[in-house]
Design goal:
With 253 residues, this protein is an all-alpha fold. The protein has one domain. 78% of the residues lie in helices and 0% in strands. It contains 10 helices and no strands. Helix 3 crosses helix 6 and helix 6 packs across helix 7. The chain starts with a helix and ends in a 7-residue tail after the last helix. About 5% of the residues have low confidence.
Amino acid sequence: MSITPAFRDGLRRVLSSPALMVLLAVLFLIGVTVVLFSLELDEAPYVFEIVVVYSIIRAWCTGGVLHRYAQNRPMRAGAFQRACGTFFFRLLRLHLLSALILGGCLYVWLYYQFGYYLVLLGLGYIFCDIVLDYAKIRTVVEDRRSMVFAVTAGFRFAVRRPGAVVGLYLLNAAIPVIVLGIEWYVSRAELEPVALFAVSIVLLAWFPLLFLSTQTAFFQDELAYPGYTAGSGVNPPDLPVTEVVAGPPTAGV
């Protein structure tokens, strides 16, 4: 699959689960409100505490979100919660590895030593972020237990398809850049309505879902098949015969 069909398929998966979009938008707006409220009170926001809480919430939600997009079909709320709980501690360990890889002091040292290589440094950061994204996907889709092996598997997947994975990443990243550009242009003209600012904030909150869904669609087409998940700790979706009798999920995600 080329990156364009993967992007279209991923966008369709995001739009087919509006409950996840609402959940992420609400969480994002709550976080932004807390930070802005702290600034209005002339209090320095608790950056470390906010990052820790954000990492825990993201690790909890990512497993269920990836499982939903990998199955590419509706899930009831109970199945979504089970998926979140099944992969929570694995993805939390992976987030710790991500913090060491992406937020370690190595990048700071390289920046001060070789500041004129900032472009190469940025490309290296993007590639590491891509590897970690596919490590998350392989953890959920293939039910991996070791996060070190998951990162290794994500690295193998990325280095064998460097053009496709980087192109898909940049295609996803281009959309928030465009939104921020429009927001900046409108704010310069002093014509920015409050509604436009709120819409742009919500759109920016949805872009992580787009990254996860498009990369999941691309990975499944390359190494698996759409709807495949090997997670043994998560109850399988209802069979078609069950949906004929009981109807498809209506109150889930």
